[in-house]
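Predict the 3D structure for this chain.
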Amino acid sequence: MWLTSVWQFLFFAKCTIAFDHPWLPLIAQTNDIFLMPFFLSLDLSPKDLGKLNCCCLSLQVITLADISNGDGTLIDLQLKQGTCNIHRASSLKWPYQERPTNTDGKLWKIILSHLETNDRLL
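Done. Predicted structure below.
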């Protein structure tokens, strides 16, 4: 993959790439959070974080609002099960990511449970 080659070259050449004004997604609603920083706060292994990142890419989600219902009280059942909800299309351009494996999907569901009490968002 070309991106891996670029990363390796930059590492060995001790170079960095800096952006003056990088694009950052916005928080959509009150009490919304970015998912990956939340996952990082759980002190998971790098391997599990990679699996969760793959789930986010496959489902095309970045924030809690992306996976919750309209009033923000529940996680969308399809997304919790690791399946894209065709009624919630993202306007962003996403890289292709295969659907998570069953093992990755189980991890996704377990980790999302940290955001809930009795199937309701905290």
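The CA atoms of residues 52 and 86 lie 20 Å apart.
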